[in-house]
């Protein structure tokens, strides 16, 4: 009995120690952000991305400077940055991913369709719309709308780009938008926070959120900040900051051109 009790106490002490080690990884001297150096318009090494501006806002609210660990997003990003203890937060991360501990979401957005404003497809807001048939449509392979397009019978129309690329040397979103603008593509179906800010800066293009899809994967996702697993105190601190500053966060995202939806992905947030 005494041996079992000793073993239980040792296990408990080791558990507390392990939790303390996780918590100790977080810096209190700076907001250490894990980010892609070329994920325009989200993050960029020159600080122009809307996630860079959000990090600046969070740093100001916490009273600390912002410091970055730069690494291309893709396989190994979380393992080599956040989990390696080199940084303490990923500014934008889809809710529900088990690689990180998610904060409360601070915005919801959706995939949408990009067309020229003067295109005959400009009124399309549903991937099952017959108007899309026989037109070349750009999409990132492996993303939810690629499934919906295939289910709508548009597989032969799809022109695919790779999901995981080093955006320091490749720019799939920029390439698609350029081809829509030139007419080489009739439309492109893209994640709103990627396409929205870029389309906002182009007078010839428009972005229409896909809010009416009824089949296939959902088109809307809630976006959180991601911290290390086990860092519940840090998560709660960020949750409180998000709650207190939600209006300011919304304004920052809207100014950037990010389409913000209600929590259910049914309509644009008022």
UniProtKB/TrEMBL annotation:
Record flagged with keyword Chloroplast: no
Domain of life (superkingdom): Bacteria
Domain Solute-binding protein family 3/N-terminal span(s) in chain numbering: 30-256
SUPFAM superfamilies reported for this sequence: Periplasmic binding protein-like II
Keywords carried by this UniProt record: Signal
Pfam annotation, one family: SBP_bac_3
Protein name in the entry: Amino acid ABC transporter substrate-binding protein, PAAT family
């Amino acid at each position: 009995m005494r041996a079992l009790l000793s073993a239980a106490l040792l296990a408990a002490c080791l558990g507390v120690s392990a939790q303390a080690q996780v918590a100790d990884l977080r810096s209190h001297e700076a907001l250490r952000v894990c980010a892609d150096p070329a994920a325009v318009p989200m993050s960029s090494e020159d600080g122009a991305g809307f996630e860079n501006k959000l990090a600046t806002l969070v740093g100001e609210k916490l009273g600390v400077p912002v410091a970055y660990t730069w690494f291309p997003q893709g396989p190994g990003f979380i393992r080599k940055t956040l989990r390696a203890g080199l940084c303490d937060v990923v500014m934008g991360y889809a809710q529900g991913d088990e690689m990180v501990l998610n904060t409360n979401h601070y915005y919801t957005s959706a995939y949408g369709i990009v067309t020229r404003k003067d295109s005959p497809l400009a009124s399309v807001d549903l991937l099952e719309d017959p108007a899309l048939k026989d037109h070349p449509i750009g999409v990132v392979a492996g993303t939810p709308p690629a499934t919906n397009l295939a289910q709508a019978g548009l597989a032969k129309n799809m022109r695919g780009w790779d999901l995981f690329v080093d955006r320091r040397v490749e720019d799939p979103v920029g390439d698609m938008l350029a081809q829509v603008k030139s007419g080489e593509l009739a439309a492109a179906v893209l994640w709103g926070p990627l396409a929205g800010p870029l389309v906002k800066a182009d007078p010839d293009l428009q972005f229409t959120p896909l809010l009416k899809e009824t089949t296939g994967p959902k088109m809307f996702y809630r976006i959180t900040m991601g911290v290390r697993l086990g860092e519940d105190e840090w998560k709660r601190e960020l949750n409180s900051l998000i709650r207190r500053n939600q209006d300011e966060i919304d304004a920052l995202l809207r100014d950037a051109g990010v389409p913000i939806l209600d929590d259910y992905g049914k309509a644009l947030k008022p």
